Inverse folding.
């Protein structure tokens, strides 16, 4: 069975000024791959989800999903559904 892609979320990257976003921002493309990592022990909130990009074999943390948009994604990641993204 195949599925069509659906549009799940439109949001900004929170905290990008504190991480390595500027190092790779120009290399990011619409439809490009980002890795999302749940951070349930994050002091800013148990639904924290960090965003990572990989270029040249290096991983770059570019920021987080904002608090207003992270609960569903964090829950899906905790349930092992990362392949849904």
């Amino acid at each position: 069975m195949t599925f069509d892609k659906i549009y799940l979320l439109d949001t900004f990257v929170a905290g990008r000024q504190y991480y390595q976003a500027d190092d790779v921002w120009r290399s990011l493309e619409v439809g490009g791959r980002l890795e999302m990592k749940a951070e349930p022990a994050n002091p800013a909130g148990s639904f924290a989800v960090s965003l990572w990009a990989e270029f040249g074999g290096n991983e770059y943390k570019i920021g987080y999903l904002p608090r207003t948009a992270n609960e569903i994604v964090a829950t899906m990641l905790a349930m092992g559904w990362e392949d849904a993204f």
The chain has two helices and three strands. The chain has a mean pLDDT of 89. The longest strand covers residues 49-55. The CA atoms of residues 31 and 59 lie 18 Å apart.
